[in-house]
Amino acid sequence: MPGSLEGRRAIVTGASSGIGEATVEALAREGAQVAAGARRRDRLEDLAGRVEGEGGTVHAREVDVSDEAAARAFVEESAAAMGGLDVLVNNAGVMLLGPVAGAETEHWRRMIDVNLLGLLYCTHAALPVMAEGGGGHIVNVSSVAGRRAEMGAAVYNMTKFGVVAFSEALRQEALHANVRVTCVEPGFVDTELQGHNEHPMVVEGVRKMREQIGEVLEAEDIAPTRSSTRCRSRRGWRSTSCSSGRPSSGASASHRIDGVRAPMGFLTPPMRAV
Ligand code: NDP
After folding, report:
1. Ligand 1 centre from 55 Cα, in Å?
2. Ligand 1 contact via 189 beta carbon (within 6 Å)
């Protein structure tokens, strides 16, 4: 499967559905070897089988990224199996919305454990591996919810604002190790994410938002595309934010990357911090 990422080794968390699954497919299509992690092994194995049927290579691995030891083992063992690590896509996430008053505090813990700590654990494990290999690219999936807070989303907002802030600070630190950091901030994407909410007010709110937006994004819109992997931005993508174009609705079918309408994909070889 020849492509612009031939010879690259990538890890994607939250790869069993939605954006993560589409990202694995897109990376593999471009020739990268990919380690795909999530908790649902059956979904990962289906994905690996599909990609391998098209000539790609996917290592499916069950992992709960909120478990520090498991996250570390996933990153280190996947990198060892692939002979190194060029790209880490921290995509795993949960969104359990609702008012703060009366919330299930277990929902808060899940969001913080997965969206923040899971991302930190994987990043912490990946940095030395990338440094040893001469550099790499860390892609963190935040959200428009990481720039704009709304009632009913307070804790999800907190996690995604955290991902934005962490990405910016890490970008400055990691430059020295030749590790590029990208933060992706999609709007409303049609995935399983919203479906985990049971609070009637949230279910109704999501339904209305979707109706207002009309044409929402598909997971494939967020994954790296052939054109974006070939694109060489003059500005280097070193802290690229890919945001929805319609902040008023919180989601949109259009994207901007460094202010330019372009495909949403986020990887540009060579992965060199500039
Ligand atoms: P999905 O629910 O389809 O995907 C979430 C993925 O995260 C699944 O593969 C799930 O796999 C995985 N995951 C959840 N918990 C864990 C865990 N503890 N350990 C490992 N993997 C876990 O939603 P999306 O594809 O939409 O979400 C992907 C990312 O995009 C998230 O970070 C989300 O916040 C972000 N995002 C989504 C938007 C949207 O509108 N959909 C908008 C903006 C950002 P499993 O259950 O098998 O573990």
Report:
1. 26
2. yes
Contacts of 245 (CB under 8 A, 6+ apart): 187, 252, 254, 255, 256, 261
Atom of ligand 1 nearest to the CA of 216: 40
The alpha carbon of 91 and the centre of ligand 1 are apart by a number of angstroms equal to 6
Give the separation between CA 22 and CA 24, rounded to whole angstroms. 5
Domains of the chain: 83-261 (3.40.50.720)
Task: Please give the Cα distance from 204 to 217 (Å, whole number).
Answer: 19
156 labelled catalytic? yes
Residue of 121, 156, 188, 237 marked catalytic: 156
Q: What is the pLDDT averaged over residues 69-83? A: 98
66 CA distance to ligand 1 centroid (A)? Answer: 13
What's the pTM?
A: 0.88
Q: Is 255 helix (H, G, I), strand (E, B) or coil?
A: strand
For 207-225, the pLDDT digits (tens) are: 998 898 888 999 999 987 6
Alpha-carbon distances, residue 50 vs 22, 74, 92, 175, 235 (angstroms): 12, 22, 21, 36, 36
Assess contact for 24 and 15: CB atoms under 8 A.
yes
Tell me how far apart the alpha carbons of residues 242 and 53 are, in angstroms, rounded to a whole number: 31
Using a 6 Å cutoff on CB, does residue 228 contact ligand 1? Answer: no
